[in-house]
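seq:
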Amino acid sequence: MTHEIEPGWLLDAAYLTFKFVRSTGPGGQNVNKVSTKVELRFDVAACDNLSQAQKSRLAKAFPSVHTAAGLIVMTSDRHRSQLQNRGDVLERLLDMLRQIRRPPKSRVKTKPTRASKRRRVEGKRQRSETIRQRRVSD
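struct:
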């Protein structure tokens, strides 16, 4: 089974492992009986759908969920049902992957324009004049 991250970009479910544990979230007595909390493990290191650059961007962008072993570990216990929590954690993973799909655009340094310099100096001059007028003259 595969999950579509974006059109034409698929994630093989073989790299995903779901584990279900008892939740501390909403559900009343239900949380004592049913394992609704979902733990998702995504093996980034073994995944061949991601380039090496994407893997490093993923590790850098989300260090709190990335382990040294090359896994992404995420949990969800927002909902009362196991199915909703599974969908929630999977959607969060897909959102993370969409964010690192392309490298961020590099910033191009620009110099301030002559007009912006003139406006800045004029503003300073006006503020200085206002302060000068507030002074008590002797």
